Amino acid sequence: MARDPSLEDRLRAALVEAGPLVWKPMMGGYCAMKDGHLLASATRRDGEGLFLFRLGRVAAEEALRRGIARPLRAGLRTMPGYVEIPAESCDEAALRRWVVLALAEVGRLPPKG
Questions:
Q1: What percent of the chain has pLDDT over 70?
Q2: Fewer CB near the last or first residue (10 Å), C or N of the chain?
Q3: Per the confidence metrics, is the pTM higher than 0.85?
Q4: How far apart are the first and last CA of the chain?
């Protein structure tokens, strides 16, 4: 995975009203962290732009069932509760909807250290 500044800009714009965030380079991309939890990321893998979101198991399974998202994989391991969305299929309105789902999930979690 590699960083993609244009995708990072799109993600930053979609998260402008999300409150305080910490941005970190992680997992080959640029990740938004809220209250110590991974919220979302923008990256490029094999030439494809991707947004990654933490949705929780139920919302992620629903997104996968509807064919909207793909499971997030780290090596050979599937990451439950996380999805990846091809950037080309994610206009600004769709990006905001994914952000709302991710913020709802992270908002349910207790803050980390």
A1: 100
A2: C
A3: yes
A4: 28
Structure tokens at 38: 């991974």
Listing from the earlier edge strand, what are the strands of the sheet with 77-86?
Answer: 22-26, 29-34, 37-45, 48-54, 77-86, 70-74
What is the third-level CATH fold of 5-107? Aspartate Aminotransferase, domain 1 (3.90.1150)
The one-character DSSP state at 74 is: E
d(CA 80, CA 68): 16
Alpha helices of 31-108 — where are they, by DSSP H?
57-65, 92-107
Q: Give the separation between CA 55 and CA 72, rounded to whole angstroms.
A: 11
